[in-house]
Amino acid sequence: MFDRLNDICIFLDESGTTNRPTLNEDHDFAFGGILVNELDFTSMRRLSDALAVTVGNRDFKYRDVQRSSAARTRFIDAMNETNVEAVAIYVPGGSLLEEKRRAIAEMEDLGSDDDGGTAQAAQELQADKAGTSIRYYIEMLAAAFLQLSAVRRQRFTLFWDRRSDLDTVLSGCINWQDLVAPTPLHRHSDVDFGGRAEGEAIALTRVAGVVAGDVCQFFRNHLSRIEAHLPSKHRFDVFPEPFDANEVMAAMKVADVWERLADANPNDAARDTCIIQGYFRSFAKSLMTFLTRDGRMVHLHVLSGRHFTLHQLPD
Asked: Which residues are within 8 A (CB) of 178 and not within 5 positions of it... i.e. 6 or more apart?
């Protein structure tokens, strides 16, 4: 599993109202993951075992942890005491289609096109063909991992929780070189998109499921508040050349927000509050990525429990 000391394994699980993105505005979806090095693998396996005992369910779900103060505290402590990092991309219902529609409108405004590729994607999403929405979502997720691997010069191996449509999920990763174009990052990306978690790895996908569920709960509670800080459109005056990830992030910045990040009292059991305020420092590069309901892609950069910035991809 870990071939080299610097290798990272990423364990993934999904959460949301369904097991894939949909057009229904009342639905949402996210894959969440944990980035684990060899030294922290055992700690995460023990956390999974401890959560199972605490909530009385070997195959525990996010809601089991959410409704137990003891389980919340165990999870928060483990995330803060190890080098494990959390990752997630959240999409509300219909946002993938809206993202394509925004791109089409922008190309029409600029007098450019992509040979109809985006229009075709929008048609497929509108038709809600089986496997279409999850494939486009996974393309976004895969691109994020490829870029992170390149920036860090680390090898990632992904392990997915059990899904009957895993082959469809992995199809979104096949042409991975295209997912990081036009940046030069693909020259430094080293990602094995792997397959279904087996054996001890299954325990770690359950922990990933807690991250996925918590990110969904966070955005259900706070998306409207966050969206209020965003401009309706955002364009770069000049795209940073040569490509520099930090300069691109700086150019994307649209808001500096001094508010509490998430729900207070993250250790307290509840059916409708998230845990993120207790472990926000664990997110990789301090980022949470999401689509707004009208299709804008945004990175939320956490600076402290009461300070975050928003970085919106250009239209």
From this structure: none
